[in-house]
Amino acid sequence: MLKTLPGATPLPTTPDLSAASSVAALQPLKVACASCNLRELCLPVGMTANDLARLDGLVDKRRSVPRGGHLFRNGEHFEAIYAVRTGFFKTCVSSEDGREQVTGFQMAGELLGLDGISSDHHHCDAIALEDSSVCVISYAQLENLSREFTVLQHQFHKIMSREIVRDHGVMLLLGNMRAEERLAAFLLNLTQRLEARGFSASSLVLRMTRVEIGTYLGLKLETVSRTFSKFHDDGLMEVKQRQLRILDQAGLQALVNNSRC
Amino acid sequence: MLKTLPGATPLPTTPDLSAASSVAALQPLKVACASCNLRELCLPVGMTANDLARLDGLVDKRRSVPRGGHLFRNGEHFEAIYAVRTGFFKTCVSSEDGREQVTGFQMAGELLGLDGISSDHHHCDAIALEDSSVCVISYAQLENLSREFTVLQHQFHKIMSREIVRDHGVMLLLGNMRAEERLAAFLLNLTQRLEARGFSASSLVLRMTRVEIGTYLGLKLETVSRTFSKFHDDGLMEVKQRQLRILDQAGLQALVNNSRC
DNA sequence: CGTGCTCTTGAACTTCGTCAATATTTGTGG
DNA sequence: CCACAAATATTGACGAAGTTCAAGAGCACG
């Protein structure tokens, strides 16, 4: 049973969508994508049972990362990509003079480390925002297997391409939108991804701080906080620190689509 | 001989780095990467003569795009990626309410269309900023060939990954930098890429308008114009409409690295 | 040799950042 | 389990950076 705060609703934690994970975490032996509940969201999206069988052996191990820990760091040698099993990550790049940019938040089923292929070294830091576990996918093995397995090859290309498309969307957000629009777009994206994973689309607990949200959206933490307060005042959502309840999704959507209405 | 304007220095136009292009443009027959002068900048980077021979047939045709014309449009069916042979492109995405974001400028040797793999449809517009020509690389053929040709497979992955890394750099720029820093970073990136193509790193003609630069950097055209004027006044460069001469590259670099010095 | 289009520049205004004070929550060790 | 310290979040007042609006100058193309 989860601990609850007096007078507060129970904190929803990330449900474990993957199969038999509590056992697997203790016995990190052979794990097959075929028996993973995340397969509809992860690398094997859209594969048949037959296809899935061929993935056997691609994921050779798992890795746990405690909250605040690094999955990998900028500059480290690249040799594997990672699929989030449980937990939540952020990736960030930084400039020479120390300014940071969060380039993304990753949840169950999403891939990390694609930036490393370009030069055999990682170009960002990947940090767990809560205790997390990932599947380790050897990149060499992935290349080998995808040479004889067309479906995997195509799927992998699609995932890289999707990351490029996503990045372009973030550029549009950073280059054109005002604070309210950015935060609304961010929240809608977040709830949409949570919903795809079986969570409520209206009630959520943020896994990241105001600073981290700001560092993703190109805003300062005070602006993020103020904008949350404004959304609250406007009746769009209840905001209580990191606990959110969306009251007017359409209202948020309208903010994103239309600058001044 | 190039046409020159009276009293003005000759306008440097894009030199043709590819082999026998003026003939090829008229006779768009078989062209091999092996005999293309762009091979050191394009898909075949780092390949041996042996490798290059295996690329034969990958580029099945060429295409010319007049200034202002679309190479492809958002929503169009995706079936090929394109390598710029001559000329200059921009890619842009736009939001529902019509706001635009230029996601990149592409010059000789750079690839266009990678965004299309994600969903078999293009997610941006690619528009020529001057009369241009591209090599058409059938994506199906590229997938086929890269299944039996490890070097190509790896090279293609690297290029996609590099695009992701580049995009993250743009996010950092859009999320953290002030107008002067953005423009300085943009100009340094541009001159560096021009230099890699055999142009002077200090003297260039912009192929894009102030509006387009602003739409890339998340600034309004007036801000871009004012910032150019400031760079001029500060002795960093000569600015005469689109004709630029960098006088103090180190000064520009210092602007990028260090917010206030 | 006009007529677009592009660019420059000024002035008022808006948005967001900065600085500062305070509140709330979380984590830690007694 | 409580108390204290550290981290996180809220809110206000003010200022800086960039946008908007407007007018005019410079080029480029037919």
TrEMBL record, chains A, B:
Keyword terms of this UniProt record: DNA-binding, Transcription, Transcription regulation
Pfam family, one: HTH_Crp_2
Keyword DNA-binding: yes
Superkingdom to which the source organism belongs: Bacteria
InterPro entries linked to this entry: cNMP-bd_dom, cNMP-bd_dom_sf, Env_Response_Regulators, HTH_CRP, RmlC-like_jellyroll, WH-like_DNA-bd_sf, WH_DNA-bd_sf
Domain HTH crp-type: 177-250
Name of the protein this chain belongs to: CRP/FNR family transcriptional regulator
Annotated organism of origin: Roseateles saccharophilus (Pseudomonas saccharophila)
